[in-house]
Batch of 2 targets.
Target 1
Amino acid sequence: MIIDKEKIGRVLAIGGENIIRTYDKDKVIKTPFGLRYLLNRKKYVNSIKESHLELKEYFKDYLLPTEIVFSSDGRSYSMIQSRLKNRKLTPKLIRKNDFVKKQFSNMISCNNKMIRDIGVSWDFYGTLGFVFGPFWVNNVVVAKNRLVMIDLGIIHLEKKNQNWLAYLIGRLAFWRQNRYLRALMSKV
Ligand SMILES: Nc1ncnc2c1ncn2[C@@H]1O[C@H](COP(=O)(O)OP(=O)(O)OP(=O)(O)O)[C@@H](O)[C@H]1O
Ligand SMILES: [Mg+2]
């Protein structure tokens, strides 16, 4: 697929890591600009394909189909997704709707399995969720009663070849995510 610049429309949202704009009639295009990307662009670009495959393997249909299009010099990429008419996942909705609750618990189990198997966690909260607290799981939305993961962000829990800053931010986000998920689940 080649990105047609003519089809890029207005800015829908600015997240912590991506600018989200409309694309074509019914899609969105996401372009990264976040800290992890800016710290080590080449590595981030190279790792996005792998993250995508891992998330598809562990979360299957929860993950919103995402097409990753790399720039010709390989230094950047865009993500294309269908544009959802979604609402926020709230404690009230989880409490009221058993199907939503089941899906969310299942998502947490998928994540625990991924952590055990490969030492990688999905980022439930993203930067915005991280800032706005435990009751906004920014990277999951509800579309027609189904929970949908709209974001490919992951956290590598082992240091390996990450630089220290990226590693420590990841560990902090993971610690915070666990606290937040506990706070959220205690309300439902
Ligand atoms: N496929 C989509 N359809 C409609 N709106 C979307 C879609 N993807 C993202 N958005 C909107 O854009 C916001 C930010 O999206 P996303 O989480 O992908 O960005 P981000 O840069 O990763 O932000 P963060 O770091 O906070 O997670 C979402 O909260 C949502 O409102
Ligand atoms: Mg996000």
Note: The two ends are 42 Å apart (CA to CA).
Target 2
Amino acid sequence: MSLSNPHSSIPPNISSTPTVLLNTGAQLPLLGLGTFQLRGPEDTLQAVDAALSAGYRCFDTASVYRNEADLGRALRHLLPKYNLSREDIFIISKLGPKDQGIKAREGALRSLELLDLEYIDLYLIHWPGTQGLGVGDLRNPKNRALSWAALEKLYTQGRLRAIGVSNYTSGHMKELLEGCSVKPAVLQVEFHPCLAQEELRRLCGENGVCFQAYSSLGTGALLQDPLVLQLAQACGRSPAQVLLRWAVQQGIPVLPKSSHQSRVSENAQVFDFELSTEDMERLGEMDCGQKYCWDPSQVV
Ligand SMILES: NC(=O)c1ccc[n+]([C@@H]2O[C@H](COP(=O)([O-])OP(=O)(O)OC[C@H]3O[C@@H](n4cnc5c(N)ncnc54)[C@H](OP(=O)(O)O)[C@@H]3O)[C@@H](O)[C@H]2O)c1
């Protein structure tokens, strides 16, 4: 993985937004808009408009978010306003746990159809388990393998430009790395100062897999943390900017979600300041294994 221009002070646009080089050769923007819980054509249009205006060029959706059609429509409508084309945008979507296994191809094709796209830039297996199966059910690993094989085929056919996984533990990752023909390009997991994910980061680094963060703000909970508030005040930035900067300063792509225009813009202003080594370390010391989202550790 190589990092291009992570400390740029130029306002973000497609040529200046810092990116991470994926093992496919594609550039993944360090900043993307999260869209979980963004629902309905109007709200989606407003958030995407605010994001494009603030310089976001990456959007993260998923089958389970039920907003793929709204996101696709919003982008088609708004790209001309910003003089952008499809190639300027990086779209991430994910295979729903209900489609894990033999239905994976169908699930991925449905995402393409709902987004109304010829290709998706990055498609992830959302969760190591299968909806309807217990966490200890031995059909889980079989279904993961079937899903990956389906994604590999769609990757080879060019409909998915990169493929990866989300919420995989190091055990799930090792199983995948041993059995795959196409290496995953990305692992997307929960990551913030209270959840440093050192083992997964090391594994990704050793295998050329890009480690991508979700819930960098701790789903909002870390915005009230006393140390985050103290550092934000000291550097004249917002708590959200401190948390996002902590990740991007380590070269880790983030996907903050907000449905407020001012916050979408605020969350993009993270490439024009630096946290000191000491502040980075103090935030790193918050690691306590705290998860605010789902926990995949019990899925066999
Ligand atoms: N792969 C997975 O399993 C997975 C799981 C979770 C998330 N994700 C992805 O990652 C994205 C982000 O994660 P997340 O939505 O869980 O949490 P997050 O980005 O850590 O936090 C979002 C929350 O923080 C608030 N917020 C955002 N910016 C703010 C700001 N500048 N000031 C104050 N509050 C702010 C938002 O409220 P408002 O909207 O009201 O502003 C929202 O409640 C998701 O949308 C999704 O795309 C992926």
Note: The beta strands are 3-4, 19-21, 27-29, 33-34, 58-60, 90-95, 122-125, 163-166, 186-190, 210-214.
